[in-house]
């Protein structure tokens, strides 16, 4: 059976389970369940702390897992596991912050104390940036209080809306240390007898998740257009591969069907309308395999 790690709590947990459910897998109903076996799909789900997912997958105990890109960087298990794909949720940035007006660039932190829950990630980054003598102070959470309470001069933390920082009287400075989202990670693979079955199940999971991403990000657009304007219309809606063109009873016209980014729906309809397209219909994609 394919063994999959899923965040059991925190910012990624609900969205990870929702995505797996949308991909046709069984998920736990009760927050107390630690393991769930989906017999039909041949997958076993293990509910673990998001921070620990990289440890289980990196050591080969579990085959694949969902975690945050920032958490994965921080876990230092690059040797055992790698990122397969971004999952489009749990988006955040990891940023430096300090009291308003105190710092303007990362280089200002040379020789200063910086509190964070992501020390490995931050230490690596300061080394890469060539900023010397930064004292990285590890805290488990509520990092925003570190400066006010005097344990650090600045902090580095996850920023989503920025509300937490603002409430603490802090502001970000410098470029983001990293941009994060939930990711799927996979181990090196095993030499066991069932290696082929595991690989097949992993491939299936990846295709299903890609299908969910596409179904969430794209809509199906149908419209009629004069044959003479077809090429211009295709340029507006090129589709993922190539749009479907069907003949109409009126030989001067054709019907076009194409997948388009959901976010651009109205802009594309306006452009098509201006070009002379009519009967423009948009439908959501329930599921897909690309
Ligand atoms: N608003 C947010 N707050 C915290 N983490 C977020 C947010 N948005 C996205 N994330 C992502 O979620 C992951 C952190 O998950 P989680 O909050 O469960 O960890 P944690 O803060 O270490 O745990 P906990 O708060 O339960 O001690 C990271 O990958 C982070 O980038
Ligand atoms: O930019 P925002 O939208 O305000 O979100 C970011 C905040 O949320 C997280 O804290 P969490 O609630 O997980 O507490 P923690 O610091 O104890 O982990 C994170 O550590 C930031 O503090
Ligand atoms: Mg948290």
UniProtKB/TrEMBL annotation:
GO biological process: L-histidine biosynthetic process
Domain Histidine biosynthesis HisG C-terminal: 215-286
A GO molecular-function descriptor: ATP phosphoribosyltransferase activity
Annotated Gene Ontology cellular component terms: cytoplasm
Cofactor: Mg(2+)
The keyword Lipoprotein is annotated on this UniProt entry: no
Alphabetized Gene3D superfamilies for the sequence: 3.30.70.120, Periplasmic binding protein-like II
Descriptive protein name: ATP phosphoribosyltransferase
Organism of this sequence: Nesterenkonia alkaliphila
